[in-house]
Amino acid sequence: MLREPTLLYWCRATGKERDDALLLKQFDEHRWPVLRMATVAQSADLPALRHACAAARDLLDYASQALPGQRLLRLEAYRLPVLFWRYRHDWLAEDVAEPIGRLHNHVQLLDTLCKWFEYSGESQACAEALGIHRNSLRYRLEKIGELTGCDPYKTNDLLRLYLGTQMITRHD
């Protein structure tokens, strides 16, 4: 029997220590079908709680498309991607993300760019994670610049590339 996924908003008392990974493990042990858990900061009042619930819903939506294998999601780690994910269909956001579309058929370059962001532009760490030499990484970044028209070494272009990668659907 296939059931629709449901959302449960669970508010815990402030000041309580929490281990969300342990909680997910306990759910598994009890065979409770929790696919994903999103956490947000505590809310001071009802309007803030409404915003927190909306943010959690947006985070789960983002994760279902962009991070399908990730079970534990913390809003503080994904605040910027979730913000732009929410508005990804807006004409202005689509225009900002347009250069990333040019990498659609260049999966290796798109993966390289995502690793570049994951490692905060640290060339050596990024190259090692990709299993390539730093010169190969530099070559790939130059190729990304040629194809997208955005220089990954310039702040405005880098931000545009970053936002674009956050608004696309990826299934790694």
TrEMBL record:
Positions of the PucR C-terminal helix-turn-helix domain: 109-164
Q: Which Pfam families match?
A: HTH_30
Matching entries from InterPro entries are given as: CdaR-like_regulators (IPR051448), PucR_C-HTH_dom (IPR025736), PucR_C-HTH_sf (IPR042070)
Which PANTHER family has this protein been placed in?
CARBOHYDRATE DIACID REGULATOR
**Name of the protein described by the UniProt record:** Sugar diacid utilization regulator SdaR
